[in-house]
Amino acid sequence: MIQRLAIFLGSRDGDDPRFGRDAYDVGAELAARGIELVYGGGGGGLMGRVSQGVLDGGGRVYGVIPRFMVEREWGRLHEPGVQMHVVETMHERKAMMTARADAFLVLPGGLGTLEELFEVWTWQTLSLHSKPVGLLNTDGFWDPLVATLDRLADHEFMSRTTVDDLVVAPDLAAALDGLASRLG
Fold first, then answer.
1. Mean pLDDT of all residues in 147-172
2. Judging by beta carbons within 10 Å of its beta carbon (0-12, 13-18, 19+), is residue 57 exposed, middle or buried?
3. pLDDT tens across 70-125, in order?
4. Nearest to residue 104, comparing CAs of 92, 93, 95, 117?
5. Total domain count for the chain?
6. Is the separation of the CB atoms in 163 and 150 below 8 Å?
7. What percent of the chain has pLDDT over 70?
């Protein structure tokens, strides 16, 4: 059973209000299921929405944010219900989130979200951790990325097993079930 889920997602809202609603709903559902949110500590964009959904649902939020982001006032540092850790580097942030989480789920986001996905997934393939990684593929948002990953496997730049180990799910319930089925 997943007790702590790291979620990587955008620090912006994106161009469709649905992204914000979905992020909030994911947070609310995590709270309802008693799953702690582990996230990058941001207060804006989808990061702020998922954490607000958890807080509004009475859940637990564990944030990790680099000091430079705190100095830019990008975090939820002094909010009730948020356990926040300030670190010096982005690498420390990901390492602390990886140590805390049982699994990883990626929602829509930009370059930073993709970087976080690929780093924790690479660490998994190198056996630096055995925690499952997944994409919440609401309305096919990640379909172009999945097609690219399939192409990489087809051309033998990565193994088919690696691609198949990535949980790709159309909704949160399916994502949580897929991640839980892959827990060590």
1. 97
2. middle
3. 887 777 667 788 899 999 999 999 999 999 999 999 999 999 999 999 999 999 99
4. 117
5. 1
6. yes
7. 98
CA 147/CA 153 separation, integer angstroms = 10
Alpha carbon distance 54, 64 (integer Å): 16
- Residue 76, pLDDT score: 67
How big is the CA angle at 12 (ends 10 and 18), to the nearest 5 degrees? 85
| 3-state SS, residue 20 | helix
Two tokens at 129?
A: 């951790």
Residue with tokens 């949110």: 37
Cβ neighbours, 10 Å, residue 99: 12
- Percentage of the chain lying above the pLDDT 90 cut: 89
Give the pLDDT score at 77. 64
Asked whether the predicted pLDDT for residue 3 surpasses 80, the reply is: yes
Dist CA 72 CA 148 (whole Å): 35
Cα 34 to Cα 30, 74, 155, distances in angstroms: 6, 26, 41
- Whole-angstrom distance between the N-terminal and C-terminal Cα of the chain? 10
Q: Which amino acid is at 175?
A: A
Q: What is the CATH number of the domain that holds 82?
A: 3.40.50.450
